[in-house]
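Quick illustration, no need to memorize.
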Amino acid sequence: MPDKPTIAIVGGTGDLGSGLARLWARAGYPIVIGSRDKQKAEAIARELCANGGCVRGDGNAAAASAGDIVVLSVPYASHDAMVEEIRAEVAGKIVVDA
């Protein structure tokens, strides 16, 4: 069986992002959650790892860079700014806008 792609969730510390991270991690996908606050992402990632699966936290741009597939899970008001922030990191990747 081939390795599963790494899924990056930009805005992964919110309810939707952390919920998706939890479920995909339990299914065996490597997950990177991103946040404006790297320490917050790392803390949430530790909590998610304690519940099963492999999750790590990082800043939004670094998470987007690390993902093979990138999920955008930010509030609509932050959407345009976030897309501009991660544009270079997601070039050529699958991007899912939740």
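Strands lie at 7-10, 31-35, 55-59, 69-72, 94-97.
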